[in-house]
Each structure stands twice: as structure tokens, then as C-alpha cells.
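Task: fold both queries, return C-alpha cells.
Query 1:
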Amino acid sequence: MLWMYSSMSPGFSMRLYAWDYLPDFVRNEDVRPYYDILFKKRKSLAVKRGADIFLSLLLIVALLPFMLVLAVWIRLDSNGPALFRQIRITQYGREYKILKLRTMTHSPPGDTVQITINGDHRLTRAGKHLRQLRLDELPQLFNILSGDMTFVGTRPEVPEYVKHYTKEMMATLLMPAGLTSKTSLLYRDEALVLEDAGDAEQKYLLKILPRKMMCNLESLKNFSLWSDITTMLRTVFPLCQPR
């Protein structure tokens, strides 16, 4: 079962486990070609993790005062905590709590809506601006430093959506979840696409998620440090343009 790995310690490496030590749901014939590609790039994965630690630590030190100012703004703008925490799935199917600046009204217990659409009534005034520039993602620098995430990789899904992964899609769990990716850039206006959907969650699961995962798998197949760098640059430069 996927959730058997919820208690695994992330550690501080992006070490690729030996094939026989992978969890059963990841170790299947559809994942093996992706595993073999990454196995040959173990040194690049080590460099990638080193860069994650260095860059995330540098940015946390530089941006922490700014994040505190944003936190105060959020608290003054609406009731609720400044930080939003949610269970997501990362490398080898391990659960972790993703950190974001809260952009919505504080959800009551039992709220199961996972999709955000354009014009969502739950968005706060501050939240609309934070999402436009993706400033709500800044606390994920701490997730990257801890090893739960990496700068470039498949965006993490909630457990309910990971249950819909095909065997091949499980290959994306060979790597930590990412802050950004080529897929994120292609689906930058996902909330707008879902706006007119009668059932946004069903449209996401049946149409958007499979397409996104095809892009994620292609990126995994073509992983390189240079590709990561270009994806990060493509993410940063358009941020001044509202979504």
C-alpha cells in the first residue's frame, strides 16, 4: 500500500534506492525504463540535491523578512493562520506537509475540495495577489531544504489523486516533488481552464491530470541539470506578468 511509506525519513539526499528496495507500488515493469535512466544519472542527482540545499538556504536567509511581512498581511486581511499546510505525496510515496502562504479563507474541518478554479469565492483579497506572482509558494523553500521537495520536479498531488495514478505514473515518485516543472509552465492557467467545468475535480482527474503526467514522464525521461536550470529561469522571468 502507498501509505506504508508515510513514516520514512526524507534525509538530506536524493539517493535513488536499489530497485529491489523500492516500494512495491513503484517497482513495476512500466517504471523500470525510467528507473534505469535515472540510475545512470546518479551523480547528477547528487549535484541536484547539493544545489537544492545551497540555493534554498540562501533564499530563506534573503527572503525570510519578506515572508514575515507577507504573513502579517495575510493575518490582517482575513481570519486564520498565515501558513497553509496540506498532506502531499513525494519521493517513494512518502507523505509530507507542504507549506504555503494561505490564500483562501480558513477552511472548516471536513472541507474536501482540493481544486482551485479561477474566481474561486474562497480566495482572499491578499490571496489573489499572492497567487498571481506565486508568492504563496515561498515557504516551500523549507520543504526543499528538508528534502521533501526539490526545485524542479513533478508538482506534488494530494493522496486522493495519487490513488488514480497508473503504473507508469508511479515513475514520477522516483524523485522528490518539485516546486516547479515544465508541466507547471504549460498548465500555468489551469484554474482558468477549470472555471467553466461543471465538476472541476472530475475534469482534473479524467482529462488534465493524465495530460500533465505525460509531460512529467517525458521530463523524467530527459532529466538533466541543464534542463532544470532552464525550467527555473522560465519560471522566474514571467512572474511579473499576472496570471
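Query 1 returned. Query 2:
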Amino acid sequence: MTACIFIFIFLTAVIALLLFHVRKKKAVKEDTSRAFSVSQVPQNSPTQWDTGKTGERYVREVLSPLSGYKKFLLNCYLPKTDGTFTEVDVILLHESGLYVFEVKNYSGWIFGEENQRQWAQTLPSGKGRSTTVKFFNPILQNKVHLKWLREYIGEDIPLYSYIVFSDRCELKKITLTTNEHIVLNRRNLIYRVRRNAELKGAVLTEEKIDALYSKLYPLTQVTEEQKAAHVKSVEQKKQHGRKTEEPKSPKGACPRCGSALVLRTARKGPQAGKQFWGCSNFPQCRFVKQIESTPASIEE
């Protein structure tokens, strides 16, 4: 009798444990499906979700406590004279002026100079190695946004340029030669914008902000076809840029030891983030050759 009771209790515990795991697995699956439906759209859709959209929402959330009358515009498609658009990630309309944000939700190390056409993102690739990815200078990108925003508004209104990177990345070496642009991590954004607002003071009335918002808001309501055309145009420019920016391999072998030359990226020192040709026989041979090619520009 005692053995039967023990077996019954044991079997009940096993069944309960199995049911618990089944329910847990089902709950995880439902949560994943729900998260996908909220944050993503179907594969191959023109508006396929990406981390950039999340970064834009974070920027708005971070700046929500900013005092003063304000309004936000996300994904504003400014028209250009050639019939295409340039997309602004976030625009803050505030008493102190218009803040134009280019949002980069990147990780890794970031290297760049204000007037350099290509910046570098360095990511660990395992076993002490790293991979470097080039991307178009976001300052130059935001200059395009400022240009067409001024053109569309048609008024002399203070515009401020901010390049906002994710808190997951480290701005390893960013060289700025002017005070026209702010490059920072998202965690420092509210402080810098608040300081600028206090310094500049209120230059726009609530009525003026409302009028500007009414004028710009329709530019955030573009059709899916227009968005798809814009994405296609940007991708074509990027593909063209990749073809022209890839440095050509220098003729011949290493002049010192005769080994092949390979493309490398500097990780330290004043040239950090820049590419160069180095001897494949490194460290026995330390010959390097600078890259002289100039990458093509991409306007987004």
C-alpha cells in the first residue's frame, strides 16, 4: 500500500513538472510572437523594422522631460528639388529652436572626423580579433537634412544638429573642427539639449511652433510606396558608394620582404579607424602603405 502511494505521488510530480515546462514554453512562444507583431513588420516589407526606429523612439522618450513648449516629429521626409526625399529621424520643435537628430543605434567602437566622408564602426569578432564596418559620416548626412529643412521652412529659424549614438557603443575617437554639430551618446542628450535651450532662451512662440508643426507634419505621412522608393534609392547609393570606396590593391608585393599586402584597419594611435595596406608577414615585416582613394558620398 505504501509503495502504491509513493508511486502515485511520484507520477503526479512528474506530470506536474512536464505540464509546467509545456506551459512555460508556450508562454515564451506567445511573448515572442507578440513582441514581433508590436515591434516588427513582415519580412520584405518596405517599412521592415530595424534598430534605428527603436533608437528614434528612445530619443523622444529621453527628451520628454525637457521643460518648455515642444513637439516632436519622427521620420520626416523632406522633399528635394530633384523629386526625391531626405529622411530626418527626429525633429524637436522647441521654444529655443528646431533640433535635428540623426540617430545611430550602433554598438562597438566609433571613429570619425567631422569632414571625413566615411566613419568606422569596430566590432569584436572573437579570438581577440575585430571587424571594421564603414558608414557614411552622419554629420554630412545631417547637413543635408538641415539644408532641405531650411529650404522647406523658408524662414530664418535656429536649427541645431545632433548626432545621437546608442549607449551600447563607445565614441572612441570623434574629431570635431567646428561647433556646428554635437556628437554624443543618448545618455548625455537631455543634458546637452537642456543646456543649449537655457543658453539660447525662448525664440519661438507656442503659436509659431504649432504653425511649423502643421507645416511639417504631413511630411511624416508619406505612403508606403514613397517609403519603399526612398529605401531603394538609398540602397542604390550605398551600393554605388561601396563599389567606389573599396580601395584598389596596390600593384606588386611588399617591397621589403616580397610578401603579399593585405588591407588592415588601425585600432590605436592618431590613425585609429583608418584603413591601410600592411605586409602579410607582420610582425616580422612592418611595412605599411597609406590608402589614397577617396570614397564616394551618399546623401540620405
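Both queries returned. Flag for query 2: The longest strand covers residues 70-79.
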